[in-house]
Amino acid sequence: MSLNEHQRRVTSAELRANLDLADLDTATLAAELGLSTAAVEDALDIGPATDPALVWRLRDHLESAARAAGAAPHEYTYLPERMRSAAQVWFGVGDHRFSD
pTM score, two decimals? Predict the structure, then answer.
C-alpha cells in the first residue's frame, strides 16, 4: 500500500506536529537517527519516492520523542498502529519506538 498525494500531505503534517511536540528541530532529529538533515527534511515532506520504511521510522521516533517530552503524540490517520504488520510485510518496517 502506498500513500496517495492527499495522504502524504496529511501524514507529513502529522509528522511535523509530533516534531513540534517533541521540541526537536530537523538537525537534532537527523543526528538522533544518524541521517543528514536533508534526508530528514525529504522524509518529512513524504514525496512519491520517499522510502515508506523511513517514514515509519520517523513516525516511531517522533511518537516516542513526543512522549519523552511529556506530550501526548498526535495520532496518525494513515499510519495507525493497526497497519504496522502490513507495513512490515510490504516495506520491511521495523519498530523504532523507544521507551522514556
Answer: 0.82
